[in-house]
């Protein structure tokens, strides 16, 4: 059943609300860590507004503090964010016909939550028009992005007042597990996830977290090989 754009927007807004409980502590933690490691309020906010990708921000910040070469920092953060390129490919059939300025805004706001919720809903609503899909997407994004900015600012401004025994860092792995686990549906996806975890753990000793680069490449190769194997098996049958 098709919905009008305003109804689709409300649906997206409501669908994104559960993520706020994870995004707010995530942003708060980044603000605390960034200012705790010497970044000014302006630098912290510029970082979070320009990158708008929590995992890559934490990795880049850690490498910067370790004195890693700029190229290593950029490559490692890019590897962490490489999933965004795959998100873009996956979501293009639903939103690719939007205007240029809309695609630019959609790309900027393409984060884990907007992708996961958006693609799942678009698949459930094949009758939606482009306007309805875009409205739903903005409904998802509209609470997420401001909360990310505000929570980062809150962590940077008031981080010193947060008791040290409050375990904010637990929210990082929980956030990604909650989002990624439901998406592991095929053998290729499960194999890629398993290999990435295993390689990252085995190569923990590599300097400047470059083990993440190797883990990302190994995961992509594994996923591609498993998909090729399955295609050949189906063709043989």
Automatic annotation (TrEMBL):
- How is the protein disposed in the membrane? Multi-pass membrane protein
What are the TM regions of this chain, as residue ranges? 12-33, 39-61, 68-85, 105-123, 135-154, 166-185
Q: Does the keyword Transmembrane apply?
A: yes
Q: Does the keyword Chaperone apply?
A: no
Q: What domain of life is recorded for the organism?
A: Bacteria
Question: What keywords is this UniProt entry annotated with?
Answer: Cell membrane, Membrane, Transmembrane, Transmembrane helix, Transport
Q: Name one Pfam family in it.
A: AzlC
Instruction: List where in the cell it is found.
Output: Cell membrane
Similarity annotation = Belongs to the AzlC family.
Query: Protein name, please?
Result: AzlC family ABC transporter permease
Provenance organism: Gemmobacter denitrificans
């Amino acid at each position: 059943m098709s919905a009008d754009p305003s109804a689709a927007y409300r649906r997206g807004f409501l669908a994104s609300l559960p993520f706020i409980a994870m995004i707010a502590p995530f942003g708060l933690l980044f603000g605390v860590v960034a200012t705790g490691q010497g970044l000014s309020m302006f630098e912290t906010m510029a970082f979070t507004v320009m990158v708008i990708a929590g995992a890559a921000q934490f990795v880049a910040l850690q490498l910067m503090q370790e004195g890693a070469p700029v190229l290593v920092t950029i490559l490692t953060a890019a590897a962490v964010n490489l999933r965004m390129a795959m998100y873009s490919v996956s979501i293009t059939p639903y939103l690719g016909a939007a205007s240029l300025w809309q695609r630019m805004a959609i790309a900027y706001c393409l984060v884990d939550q907007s992708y996961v919720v958006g693609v799942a809903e678009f698949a459930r609503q094949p009758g939606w028009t482009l306007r309805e899909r875009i409205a739903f997407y903005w409904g998802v994004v509209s609470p997420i992005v401001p909360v990310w900015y505000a929570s980062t600012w809150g962590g940077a401004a008031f981080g010193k007042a947060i008791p040290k025994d409050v375990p904010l860092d637990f929210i990082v792995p929980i956030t990604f597990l909650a989002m990624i686990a439901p998406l592991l549906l095929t053998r290729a996806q499960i194999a890629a996830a398993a290999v990435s975890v295993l390689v990252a753990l085995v190569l923990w000793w590599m300097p400047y977290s470059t083990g993440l680069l190797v883990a990302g490449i190994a995961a992509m190769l594994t996923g591609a090989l498993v998909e090729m194997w399955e295609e050949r098996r189906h063709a043989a049958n």
